[in-house]
Amino acid sequence: MFRPNRIHLATWLGVVAFAFAPMPYADAGAPTTLVLDQGWSRTQREFYYHTSQGTVIMPAAFLEALEADNGGRFMDASNLTRFGWLFDVDDNSAKNPYGWPIGFAVDTDATPDLPQAGLTCAACHNGQIVFHGTRVRIDGGQSGIDLNAFATALNTAIRNTFDDNERRTRFIERAVLLGYPKARVEQDFQSLHDGFATADRRAQTEVKDGMTLAGPGRLDAVNDIANAVFVIGLDTPSNIKPGDSPQNFPYLWDIWRFDWVQSNASARQPMARNLVEAMGTGHIHLVDPRSGKLLPEATRWKTTLNVRNIHAIEQQLRTLKAPPWPEEVLGKIDRARAQKGRALFVDNCAGCHGIQRIAGTHEPTEWHVPLVKLSKIGTDPNLAVNFASRRYDASKLGAGDKLGIPEGLYLVVSNVKRQAYLDAGIGENERADFDGFGRKNDINPAPCGYKARPLIGVWATAPFLHNGSVPTVYDLLSETRPTTFRFGDNAFDPVKLGLGATTPSDATVFDPSQPGNGNAGHWFTNESSRSGRIGRALNDDERQALIEYLKAATPADYPTRNVGTPAPAACSDDRHWADHWPNPQTQ
Fold this sequence. Notes:
By secondary structure, the protein is of the alpha+beta class. Helices cover 33% and strands 11% of the residues. Among the domains are: 1-206, no CATH class; 334-379 and 451-575, no CATH class.
């Protein structure tokens, strides 16, 4: 029997009826979609868009057969673009047989006789901006999907299909035509429905209080992964925590070089980082759902995660370049002003955001990404505080009833990775390469800040700060910021460099007064007493010069220096700094 995966609802929450054949995206191949040259061929892009990490949502035939409430195909562009999903400009391939959007995979590895639908890296890490009707694809950029809204709609479609006899009959007929075994289809759909219903009830009753709307392009990923592992994986409902620290989906170019990963510089090893990410939408059950007891060691750590695919994706990301500014769409770069901006960047920004090559490391050289303490940067502390202070009952694992996020994820992912390597036949001689440059699975247990990464290509990644609380670079460099703004349709402003004017009916309102949404900090101001001041006030001409440089910046002209072995991250020796941290400051 198909065992439904319930994790994705816990982590994400918050045509005619018989047209089961894939339908093309209405704008596919249109000249208004520009794919930038970021170093990938068409084949490489397709690989990244649709290669499975081993995550499992439901059988592929079920997802393709599912009907939207308007009677059309649920996976059609006319239904999914409202959630921010992107459809490729030319996608009728074996990697994507149903014509699904970028970020979905049909996985035949976990269950060869029953292909599964799952999410790929590109679901959260592939973006698009829109200017005067032209779409500009940003491979490896920040996705604009609203996973919470999508998950709610998916759950509603499953529930309404199950409850409506005629609709359920149409669904079953389509699934069988798509190859699902007729003898199993009704029973397996019952199991799928029940699993989604259980997760939805839990999310609605236990997570709603204290949640902050993530909206498009953001997710409280750390909390969602923790809930997936410590709530669903351990079958311990009391462990659930509200998602009150949404953060931007990070952009992926150059990340393979960073010495510490995650936005709070908490993880060292690329494979461990990738497995933790995938566990948020993957399939992990550590206890027997019938007895509530810990599963035997032989089965406890088994998952559907595909370490060979994850490694191949990580390898390909090494060839991904930052997106070049498309002058033919967004306007010419003022090169003279950009040169002035570079000088300003060196003086005001490069200390944190320059490239810092670590001397004596492997080739290609690692880059140190400094962690800037909360006491200096002054940005919303929720993400760092939650990571350091939240505790979970892991008694079933023999790890006590006050296990922290970093220690808990380290414990689980170490065992999951070990088992996945064994199951995939990854020998000892291969493991250092799969881990990523032979890095150990080290963690910073409670870093008290956020990492500052190089900003080549940052022009394409609005909104800004780790929580997406500032709409444009111009606003980020100013002494005041918008109290609210609308976002959600990828509209772009090439002058202020960031979110452009958005149609109200298509937009989500960002409210900086909500927990985790604070837009203070990272100030350029002459008010020396202002919390989060990092530099002097900039005049309008200086702000515009810096913007022009960020459009033009390339590795060839970017401020770069060599550094020795970096010191430990801030607060790495203080596990309890966040236990009494004051409430987040908003402004």
